[in-house]
Request: fold
Amino acid sequence: MFVDSHCHLTFPELASQLPQIREAMAQAGVDRALCICTTLEEFEEVHALAMRYDNFWASAGVHPDNEGIAEPTVDKLLELAARPKVVAIGETGLDYYQMDERKGGRSIADLEWQRDRFRTHIRAAHACRKPLIIHTRASSDDTIAILKEEGEDGSPGSAGGVFHCFTETAQVARAALDLGFYISFSGILTFKSAADLREVARFVPQDRLLIETDSPYLAPVPYRGKVNNPSYVPFVAKQVARAARHDHGSGGGAHQPQFRDAVQRREIMRNHLKFLLYLVLTIAFSSAHAGSYEDWFAALKRDDPRTISSCSSAVSMRTRSTRPAATACSSRCRTARCRPPRCWSPGPRPRWNGAAPRTKAR
Ligand SMILES: [Zn+2]
Ligand SMILES: [Zn+2]
Reply:
């Protein structure tokens, strides 16, 4: 049994194919689907599907990308949400993707209307106590911030819901999970280029993970590029199972603490690697310059050939120096301007006083 948690069966690519789609769903073992509303104008059609078929349900909401359509109010959403078989509010959220191409070169500040619309949906979800279907694209910081500002914190009074068609980082997944939301993956998870997303899927607890098609878009491999439909959702499930097996051996359930521990471990490891890299670079840099960087750099700036040539690294940097590198470590280097330790000639050898010689000089 599979459930497609997010599909658009009223879109023109699919609306006329419903009998074939339902047949394909039955064959593939997909026995439930949530039909998503993206405009108020579309709602009646979406709702009619849910009323006509036992295994379809509907949502009420306006997609953040839709402009020039009827703007929802809390009251209007509540009116629609009260209809039978309407089980969620959305899809709603924020979309800052490709501001030039898709938003006519406007800035994020210009999209206050999107954020207002999102808040309207959250308030409606609180009032009717139904979950939110969140669309977030290139806007995860604002999405999480607004949810928090509107009182979403995972407590019993929160609406909760799902971050649909998830394509964000593990940190965003963690923030969403901490707010009590589910994470839903689409066919994108099967794309060759989605290795990072599969890593995220590995750490989402199985009891907080949903699958969807977002059809007619984003058909999973092996149907990538074709028109998507709910009967393809098992391909997403298969990919999720593969990722979970990879992480948990027998496929045992992943839990929130495991997710947190894993993310924390990765963060600690990343910090260790950064420190190691810093250390290697520092050692490489200081050995390349054989002493105080500031001193020879100051000398370079002064362009003092005596001081510069006294430092072998500076000589190697300035191959046209008038003085050969062989003169580098003479006693004349002992000036206040030339401090690099390697340029200092050794002091007088200590006389042996009869004690056992030290094997290692400091
Ligand atoms: Zn969406
Ligand atoms: Zn959608």
